[in-house]
Amino acid sequence: MRARSFAPTYVRQPEPMMSLNMTPLIDVLLVLIVMMILTVPIMTHKVPIDLPQAGPTNPGPHTVHRLDLAADGRLAWDGVAIADGALPARLAALKNEVDADLHIAANADARYERFDQTLATIKLAGITRLGFVGNERFARFDAR
What we know:
Layout: H1 23-44, E1 63-69, E2 75-77, E3 80-82, H2 87-96, E4 100-106, H3 112-125, E5 130-133
């Protein structure tokens, strides 16, 4: 029979890795870049409008003109359908009226892009007396 030697065996300690595994880091960075690419255009698109602040109101008579935006994108000025090209002329006439307000009402099914174009036209015309009609239903958004 062969004699067994019970000499102690030494367990080698693992050596530290000299290189870092970059694959998970690159994956996380790619996901972050894709998220930024998707969210930046949404955050930068806006039409700046100066909304009125609460304060004393003028009790005098006001002329109120209403601009309606239908679900299919058609415009109506005081209930009469108008072409897109006629809107700047109507807005210029409205700007010259001293006590005239513009109320805009958009159908809930109207495209946001069309509403945005209409607001940009109003802003370009210099209209500052603007009110939004139909937003009362959103006054208590948390109430159901």
